Amino acid sequence: MRFVSRAAGEEGTVAVEFALVASILLIMLFSTMELALALHARLVISSAAREGARQAAIDGGMSVRVRQRISDHLDFANICEDDAEITITPQSATYGTPVSVTISYDHQFHTPLLRPILGSGVRLETRAISRSEKLR
Known about the structure:
It contains 3 helices and 3 strands. The protein has one domain. The chain is α+β, with helices and mostly antiparallel strands and 136 residues long. A 3-stranded antiparallel sheet has the order 1-2-3. Helices cover 46% and strands 21% of the residues. It is rod-shaped and about 90 Å long.
C-alpha cells in the first residue's frame, strides 16, 4: 500500500473543505425539511377549509358541526384552532348561495439555524367555496 505524502501547508485543507461543504449541505437539508413541513401545513389547512365548506353547504352556513369538522382536520398537523383565523361567510345561507370558508395560519419555522435566512415563518392562507344545499 502506498501513502501519498502531502505538501507542506496542506494538512488542514481537508478539514476546512469538509466544514464548508457540510455547512452548505446541512442548510440545504434543513431548508428542505422546513419546506416539507410548511407544505404539509398548507395541505392540512386546505383540506380543513374544503371539509368546512362542505359541512357549511350541508348545514346552510355557520354551525357547531362546521367548526368541529375544521378543528378535526387542523388536528392532523397539530394546528390549534385558536392559532388559525377562520372566516365563514355567510353565517346563514339558503339553497344555492355560495358559502366560503377562509383559513389563515402563520406557520413558524422550527429550525433556529434558518430563521436568519428565511425569517421566522410564513403566512399560509386558503379558501374553499361551496354552494349551500340547505332548503328552508
